[in-house]
Amino acid sequence: MLERTLAIIKPDGVRSRIIGEIIRRYEQGGMTPIAIRSTQLTKEQAEAFYHVHREQPFFGDLTSFMSSGPIVVLALEGEGAILRHRELMGATDPAMAADGTIRKAFGTSIDCNVVHGSDAPDTADKEITFFFKNTDLCAIT
Ligand code: CMP
């Protein structure tokens, strides 16, 4: 099924100058970026985006890190894009991620894990809407 998912290249990925490498992996993995922009979240915006994790002990560190520098947000489209993106990212903890995945190659800790991806269709819709207007999404496939 043709799906859309949200990807975030986190501040560590931007600082490491691997934006292009990550987008290359998405394209070669069969996904099309249908919207891309860079931004820097405020702490409050990071807290809103990760609201679902607000009770977790890592919430403060996560939202501080996510607002610590520029990020790149992408809406990706492709067959089974949500699962495909999760496969390309690898496990949340880079130490547990499979060989060949983005987090295994470039992640340095569970917080500095380079990329975020939506985990289900309803969250993908909400997360894409958090960053993009409908008119920003330009299907080119
Ligand atoms: P992400 O996919 O962006 O979703 C929430 C983030 O919280 C996750 O990636 C990790 O970077 C971060 N995080 C920190 N500690 C944990 C943890 N124990 N379990 C899950 N996510 C964590």
Please give a structural write-up:
The protein has helices at 11-15, 19-28, 43-49, 59-66, 81-89, 102-106, 121-131; strands at residues 2-9, 32-39, 71-79, 115-117. It is α+β, with helices and mostly antiparallel strands. The chain has a four-stranded antiparallel beta sheet with strand order 2-3-1-4, with helices on both faces. Helix 3 (43-49) crosses helix 4. The structure holds adenosine-3',5'-cyclic-monophosphate. Residues 53, 58, 62, 92, 110-111, 113, 116 line the site of adenosine-3',5'-cyclic-monophosphate (CMP). Adenosine-3',5'-cyclic-monophosphate (CMP) is lined by residues 53, 58, 62, 92, 110-111, 113, 116.
Helix-strand layout with pairing:
Blueprint: E1 2-9, H1 11-15, H2 19-28, E2 32-39, H3 43-49, H4 59-66, E3 71-79, H5 81-89, H6 102-106, E4 115-117, H7 121-131
The protein binds adenosine-3',5'-cyclic-monophosphate (CMP).
Assembly classification: single chain
Radius of gyration over all CA atoms, rounded: 14 Å
Name given to the CATH homologous superfamily: Nucleoside diphosphate kinase-like domain
Number of helical segments with 4 or more residues: 7
Properties at a glance:
141 residues, alpha+beta, Alpha-Beta Plaits, 4-stranded antiparallel beta sheet, globular, binds adenosine-3',5'-cyclic-monophosphate
Compact description:
This protein is α+β, with helices and mostly antiparallel strands. It has 7 helices and 4 strands, in the order βααβααβααβα.
